[in-house]
Amino acid sequence: MPETYGPKGRVYPLSALNDTMRLVRIRCPYCERQHCYQPSDLIQIFGDVDVDSLMERMKCEHGRDHGRLEVEAFAPTGREAVGLRIRRLVAIKINRVPVWREDAA
Ligand SMILES: [Zn+2]
C-alpha cells in the first residue's frame, strides 16, 4: 500500500526500517530493561505504524505504570551485532471473550 509521507511530519513507518535492516530498541526508563525487536515482528502486532508511536502503543511488561517507553531505531554495527539478542515474536495469543445474547425460547 504505497502512501506518501509528506515532509510535514516525521512519520516513519516500521516498513521503512525493514528495508534498511534496522532494528527497534525499546527501553523502559523506569526499570531500565530493554529489548531489540525486528520491525517485521512489530508490524504483525501493531501494523505498519509510525516508529515513534510505539512509545504510546507498547507498555513495559514488568508494569503497565512504568510510563512511556523509549523507542530507537538503529542499525547494529559489526561490533554491536556480536552477542546482540533480538526478541522474536513466537506467537500472538488471542483472548477468547464470550459474548452472550438472550433469545426468547
Ligand atoms: Zn519497566
Short summary of the structure?
This protein is of the alpha+beta class. The protein has helices at residues 14-19, 39-46, 54-57, 78-81; strands at 23-27, 34-37, 70-74, 86-87.
Please explain how this structure is put together.
This protein is α+β, with helices and mostly antiparallel strands and 105 residues long. The chain has one domain (14-87). It is built from four helices and four strands; from the N terminus they run H-E-E-H-H-E-H-E. It has helices spanning 14-19, 39-46, 54-57, 78-81; strands at 23-27, 34-37, 70-74, 86-87. The chain has a four-stranded mixed β-sheet with strand order 3-1-2-4. Strand 1 (23-27) and strand 2 form a beta hairpin. The N and C termini lie far apart (48 Å). The structure holds zinc ion. Zinc ion is lined by residues 28, 30-31, 33, 60, 62-63, 66.
